[in-house]
């Protein structure tokens, strides 16, 4: 039989077969010998148990994509959630997450939550990402603003919500799907949320999609790569590829750079380009020190 791993804990995996039936399985020893670790989201083949016994997970089918943290596979779309208010938006994290997904060919959406707290901030965030290649949604989990539109865009997809703590991811999932899952109160003293989600779990939805309930997205970091590869992960840059004086061009400080020209003309938000430069320079240091 074939199915998808919904959760895994203590060496036991809950696998949902296409009909909706769920089975508790253990991984066969051959997977350990092959150094294969089953992940939430994996499509697998398995043998159900008999007479109340646990069955066996026999093989992991080819993955379309894989994330390291959180350790999940076969995600269709990542909703990057940011708050228009509290906590103060970490847009560098937003850019890093968009690049992370772009590198793995995972679809993205940008969700500006808590839009009722600061409408001007919500407008500013939407402006900066208007050409980032991801659909931008303004939502409020408390009032329901924008939730129907977001839900429609997620229908039938295996998707995850990621972003810094306190932006309202759990509250948004509750509003989207009528759940009553635990949410954390925002710590006024340290101005960041308390992470209430403890382990990865895929939750099947009536529309055929699944939502990933997971911690860890706020800890995401780009894996080491040649810093010149980062320019391919910014959709706004694609139209000018090959039009700069130098090739390759980092689009940071080179003269006669087509991207910098677009920034000067206001065609690319300066703030977005400046954060790209920060990520490029950070990766440049890591790349230079990779053998150290």
Can you put this structure into words, describing what you see?
The structure is a single chain. This protein folds into three domains: 2-62, OB fold (Dihydrolipoamide Acetyltransferase, E2P) (Beta Barrel); 72-219, P-loop containing nucleotide triphosphate hydrolases (Rossmann fold), CATH 3.40.50; 227-288, Ribonucleotide Reductase Protein R1, domain 1 (Orthogonal Bundle). 24% of the residues lie in helices and 24% in strands. It has helices at residues 29-33, 91-103, 119-128, 147-154, 169-177, 258-264, 270-288; strands at residues 2-9, 12-17, 22-27, 43-47, 55-60, 66-67, 72-73, 77-83, 107-113, 135-138, 158-162, 186-187, 192-193, 201-204, 210-213. The chain has a six-stranded mixed β-sheet with strand order 10-9-8-11-15-14, sandwiched between helices. Strands 1-2-3-5-4 form a five-stranded mixed β-barrel. A hairpin with a 5-residue loop joins strand 14 and strand 15 (210-213). It is globular and about 70 Å long.
Helix and strand arrangement:
Elements: E1 2-9, E2 12-17, E3 22-27, H1 29-33, E4 43-47, E5 55-60, E6 66-67, E7 72-73, E8 77-83, H2 91-103, E9 107-113, H3 119-128, E10 135-138, H4 147-154, E11 158-162, H5 169-177, E12 186-187, E13 192-193, E14 201-204, E15 210-213, H6 258-264, H7 270-288
Helix pairs in contact: 2-7, 4-5
Write out the strand line-up for the largest beta sheet, numbering strands in chain order: 10-9-8-11-15-14
- In terms of DSSP E residues, the strand content is 15-25%
What is the CATH topology assignment of the largest domain?
Rossmann fold
Helix content: 10-25%
Integer tally of domains: 3
CATH class of the largest domain: Alpha Beta
The total of beta strands comes to 15
Shape: globular
Identify low-pLDDT runs.
184-197
- Mean pLDDT level: 89
Order of helices and strands: EEEHEEEEEHEHEHEHEEEEHH
Q: How many helices in DSSP terms?
A: 7
Round the Cα radius of gyration to an integer and report it. Answer: 21 Å
Termini separation (Å)?
48 Å
Question: Main beta sheet, described?
Answer: 6 strands, mixed
* CATH architectural group of the largest domain: 3-Layer(aba) Sandwich
Q: What is the CATH homologous superfamily assignment of the largest domain?
A: P-loop containing nucleotide triphosphate hydrolases
Kindly name the structural category. Answer: alpha/beta
